[in-house]
Amino acid sequence: xxxxxxxxxxxxxxxxxxxxxxxxxxxxxxxxxxxxxxxxxxxxxxxxxxxxxxxxxxxxxxxxxxxxxxxxxxxxxxxxxxxxxxxxxxxxxxxxxxxxxxxxxxxxxxxxxxxxxxxxxxxxxxxxxxxxxxxxxxxxxxxxxxxxxxxxxxxxxxxxxxxxxxxxxxxxxxxxxxxxxxxxxxxxxxxxxxxxxxxxxxxxxxxxxxxxxxxxxxxxxxxxxxxxxxxxxxxxxxxxxxxxxxxxxxxxxxxxxxxxxxxxxxxxxxxxxxxxxxxxxxxxxxxxxxxxxxxxxxxxxxxxxxxxxxxxxxxxxxxxxxxxxxxxxxxxxxxxxxxxxxxxxxxxxxxxxxxxxxxxxxxxxxxxxxxxxxxxxxxxxxxxxxxxxxxxxxxxxxxxxxxxxxxxxxxxxxxxxxxxxxxxxxxxxxxxxxxxxxxxxxxxxxxxxxxxxxx
Length: 455
What we know:
Porin, disordered N terminus
């Protein structure tokens, strides 16, 4: 476990300068190999990246000192989430990937059997409590036989970080910013998708199942202002039926039955697990050669648990109907320009326990190849978390975060690349009637310079 040392460090309004090493997005140009020995076909990834960057608001807090209590006691091992606490951050990111399908012979049936290990070892030099190691394992299996195909994809992450949550003086939590410190704490995350598909000339059937699981392992304390993190998961299964409008473009109708779990703290009566049924209409495939898309959306019928002597579901409508939608589009505008958009809207349970919330996330990115070696990336992201379906006064929130980013990537050769990136996060309150709403709001700037070596 990382040391829980409290440091005072502020850098409001700083110009951020850093060094980040990661893969550039441009196509590699021919160059002399670093090694005269070619990689075996089953070794798909072997690289090392290093990242040195500066974050001028580590806790994404917007609380000016004038709004804080005159004095406060930070729980043992915790750290106070103060405004504009900055830190230099070093990240080491090796990557090792295998595809074992070539070793098993028949690629017509087993097309992919891959495992990728891509950890991040992250050091916050000015805030040691925020240092962590993220061990990420991505597995993928793709197979097919005649009209039948199947795929299994799983992303498993173990984060080894502080086992103590963050303390917010005066219980002044700042918009969506409370999520960033949570992602650095001790936990396990798992995301999995299983698909089977039976294809015919004009139609297909696709049974499917998915899992999103967060096992939060931080200490739980009944202390006002201390951030307790609730374990939660979403598990569902169902099927899609597709009709092929064009050979590579289909309309779909689907159904899901699922369950969402939210841990109930032993010192509270509140949590909001639910069952749901979901009906989805969609479009997917390539309507034109330059556009890939997958769209699904429809009503989500919720059923929350009734109240009991030991448990209260703190929402007004325990049989609510909400919207669920996912969008993914990639447009290859020219051989040098690519535009991508992804979005998701759904009802989810919060990591702070108690109530569910409605989350909307939209991410737009643009990539331009300026030359054969140099590329430009621009991005914009909108994240909204609306907690107002809950009936607890302490949970009436409507938080927004706007992110704008840009970067240049340069590919020296097929093995070495570099990049310079900048991102700005702006957290804003959208809930009416909040006293001193600026205590919920924040700005964060991050600039990075980087490179990667591929073997």
